[in-house]
Every structure is written in structure tokens, then in C-alpha cells.
Design goal:
16 helices; 7-stranded parallel beta sheet; alpha/beta; 13 strands; elongated
Length: about 450
């Protein structure tokens, strides 16, 4: 068999946001075409897990706001592919810095070095857009155009890939709802793009087989969001919904505000207001410029799903994403109430220990201390950066309670209310939540 030529042999490419949903797929695609890829990532550890064997450099776009900040990352680079982005401002995200200021500095640095740029932007990015996500994306695109660097701006529609994130994750999560299908803005028009077509467009740009310019990467015709969701449900192997439940506007806005509040605690929910506003406006682009430049149309949603494999892990991930808010809420409530009840009923709890031979002072100190520990763990799991570690600590503390109580007050195992028996499912739930909270 004759090996196909590698289109990007000897090309050195820097990929920003390389372990994200789009970035990881683009990185693998570029490498398969022979490019030498360097991944610009926030976390070297996460980069090693997702992109083993790929050269990685640690960096944060929020700290690369001047052209000189790009001097080292651009050394020896022929092309930069910017897949980095954030949905909404939060503890770990700054839209103005990531989408605009850092990108403007990157463009100036690339222009000085003759390095080309492939910018993954977004359909609907314009200065008058209704969300800061789209406005900052537009500002970054404009800054790149003004820089004079060789530039390709690719604006994908709703990206459908083997993995999931953002809009794709939301579709799969909603598709996992049993029996009924809740949906907001069911008639919003949506044009999708398969991840393989997106990666092909990036490769064409890096190889300079695509003329410089801006391109919407979308299928030829839009579909209503309700049809997109129905096709997602079918692809995942879930039974068709018995009925659709269109969500009223007031409920959609209430959910978005709640998701925004959780965003301030570090939770990057796909239900935040920026995403819901984009979905209300629709995801519609113009496929003609890309088709004219390449002579081909992009695959439609039906073909995209036909080319993807849905396995048990996809259905499990969708179901667990749906259950995750409930799991976190139950764990937080369990530990908070456990601690509060300990403080409120300190006399009763102390009596159990003094009955087992403890001194009154030691019993009171123990009850108060561990009640505070419980409350702390109940609050810690609500702060997203600490949530995974809080789950492990909850499981460890629960195990300690079981062992210590079994030694100090073994009679609690026979208590009709089962205080020790009830610790077992709570500990198990913490262990179930822990892997689900791992990033990416």
C-alpha cells in the first residue's frame, strides 16, 4: 500500500487551547498530517493526560497581553492555530483578555515574525452582538485583521464531535432526559459542522490550500433546534421522547441566572446566559464562501452522526451530566445538615459519647470540632476548584466516622435509625462524584 503524502511535513504549528474540545481534535489532526505540533496549555498535567506524546508548553492567555509575551512561544513556529476560548467571565476566565487583548498581542507578534494565524472564531461574532462572548470574539478577529499577519478566520457552527463540551454536551444531557424532552427555543435555526470537517478546514488553512479570509463552517441548510435534539437522541440510542416540553422564556431566564450564579463559584455550566442567548438567536452562517473556495459542501448533521460511533460511555456521560447538579446538591446538603444538627443537638450527641466513658469536655469538643468539619466539607464541594478534593475528603471523613464509632460506640450499628448504616451510601456517592468532577 502506498502511503499518502503528509501535507504538513516540516510545518511547526503552535495550537492554543490544545486540550479543549476543538483544540484536542485539531492537534491530533495536524499531527496526522505530518505537522510538528506544540500545545500551548494552562496545565501541563492535563495536557499530558489528553495529548500524550505532544510537546507542551505551559501558558495562560490572561498573562500574554503584550507582543513581547509571545516571543518565546513563537520561536521556530510557522503557524498559530487559536482554539482557545471561554464562554463567560468567571474565576478562571476573562473574556476580554482571552478573546481580545491576548489575541491582539499575538497578531502583532506574528506579523513581526511572518507567522500565519488560523483563528477559530464563532458565528455571530460582531461588535453589536447581544453577548460579551460574541463582542470580545469580534474584537479579537478585528485586531488580527489589523495586525497584518497572514490570517484565516474560521467560524464554525454547532460543532459535533466524538467527545462533548459546551453546546454538544448540553444536547447530549438534554437527550438523556427520560420519557419527555424539555427544550428551550425549539424553533431556533441551527447549522452544524462535524469535527472532521472543521479539522480539514484548519489543515487547509495551515497548508495554505485555502485562500486567506473569513469562512463560516456550516452545513448547507439549517434545522430547528428541536430536530437537532431529536437526531442527537436517536444517535445516542435513547428512546424517542413521548412528548416535548417547550420551556417558557421566564423559566429559561431563571435557569440561566442560576447557572450564572454557579459560574461565580467556578462551575462552567452550558446553561449560562451567554449560551442561552446564542441559542435563542440561532446558529446560522453562510456556507457559500467556503464552498466556493474549496468546491465542496460540509457534511450535514445526518451524515455527521452517521459517521460517529455512539458507545455506552457516551450514554453514561450524558446521564451523569444530567444527574451531576443533583449529586452535588445532595452531598452539600447532607454534610451541611449533618454539621448543623450536630451543633444544634450538641447535648444529645455528647450524651452518646459520655455514655461510652468519655469526659464531658472531650465529648463536647469532639462534637463541635467534627460538626465544623462537616459544615466545611458541605461548603467546599460548592466551590468548583475544590469540589473533586472535597469529595475525597468527605469519603475519608466518613470512613473515619465508621471506624471511630465502631470502636467507641459499637451499639450505634444496632440503632433503629441506622446512623452508621446511612454513612455508607453517602460515602459511596462522594466516591462516585469524584471521577465525574475531573476536568476534561
Amino acid at each position: 500500500m502506498i502511503a499518502r503524502p503528509l501535507r504538513l511535513f516540516n510545518k511547526n504549528v503552535l495550537v492554543l487551547g490544545a486540550y479543549g474540545f476543538i483544540g484536542a481534535a485539531v492537534t491530533r489532526s495536524l499531527r496526522s498530517e505530518g505537522a510538528e505540533v506544540t500545545a500551548f496549555v494552562r496545565s501541563l498535567k492535563t495536557g499530558a493526560q489528553i495529548l500524550p506524546g505532544v510537546t507542551r508548553i505551559q501558558g495562560d492567555l490572561r498573562a500574554c497581553l503584550r507582543p513581547e509575551d509571545w516571543e518565546a512561544p513563537l520561536a521556530g513556529v510557522d503557524c498559530v492555530v487559536n482554539c482557545a476560548g471561554a464562554l463567560q467571565d468567571g474565576p478562571l476566565d476573562d473574556l476580554e483578555a482571552v478573546h481580545h487583548t491576548a489575541v491582539a498581542a499575538l497578531g502583532q507578534a506574528c506579523a513581526q515574525k511572518g507567522v500565519s494565524v488560523v483563528q477559530i472564531s464563532a458565528i455571530g461574532a460582531n461588535p453589536e452582538a447581544g453577548t460579551d462572548f460574541m463582542r470580545t470574539k469580534a474584537a479579537g478577529d478585528a485586531a488580527l485583521r489589523d495586525s497584518g499577519a497572514p490570517l484565516w478566520i474560521l467560524r464554525p457552527g454547532l460543532v459535533i464531535g466524538q467527545s462533548d463540551y459546551g453546546g454538544t454536551a448540553l444536547l447530549r444531557m438534554l437527550a438523556a432526559v427520560p420519557w419527555v424532552q424539555p427544550i428551550a427555543h425549539p424553533q431556533s435555526p441551527v447549522q452544524s459542522v462535524g469535527m472532521p470537517d472543521l479539522c480539514t478546514a484548519v489543515t487547509q488553512a495551515v497548508a495554505k490550500d485555502l485562500p486567506q479570509g473569513s469562512y463560516d463552517l456550516v452545513e448547507d441548510a439549517p434545522s430547528p433546534l428541536s430536530d437537532v435534539l431529536a437526531q442527537t437522541r436517536c444517535w445516542m440510542g435513547f428512546p424517542p421522547a413521548r412528548t416535548n416540553l417547550p420551556m417558557p422564556g421566564w423559566l429559561t431566564r431563571l435557569i440561566a441566572r442560576g447557572a450564572d450564579a454557579l459560574g461565580r463559584l467556578g462551575w462552567r455550566s452550558p446553561l449560562r446566559s451567554n449560551a442561552m442567548t446564542v441559542m435563542a438567536d440561532g446558529v446560522v452562517g453562510d456556507p457559500v464562501p467556503y464552498r466556493a473556495a474549496t468546491g465542496r459542501s460540509l457534511a450535514g448533521l445526518t451524515q455527521v452522526y452517521a459517521d460517529l460511533t455512539c458507545a455506552r460511555e457516551h450514554r453514561l456521560a450524558a446521564r451523569m451530566s444530567l444527574l451531576m447538579p443533583l449529586v452535588i446538591a445532595v452531598l452539600s446538603l447532607f454534610w451541611l445538615l449533618s454539621g448543623l444538627f450536630g451543633l444544634i443537638g450538641v447535648s444529645a450527641a455528647t450524651a452518646v459519647l459520655t455514655g461510652a466513658g468519655w469526659s464531658t469536655a472531650a465529648a463536647i469538643a469532639s462534637v463541635v470540632f467534627w460538626s465544623i468539619v462537616d459544615i466545611t466539607l458541605g461548603l467546599a464541594i460548592l466551590w468548583r476548584p475544590w469540589a473533586a478534593r472535597a469529595c475525597l475528603l468527605q469519603a475519608a471523613v466518613a470512613l473515619f466516622y465508621l471506624l471511630a464509632a465502631s470502636l467507641a460506640v459499637p451499639g450505634l450499628w444496632l440503632d433503629p435509625l441506622g446512623p452508621l448504616v446511612k454513612i455508607l451510601p453517602a460515602m459511596t456517592l462522594s466516591l462516585v462524584a469524584w471521577p465525574l468532577l475531573q476536568s476534561r
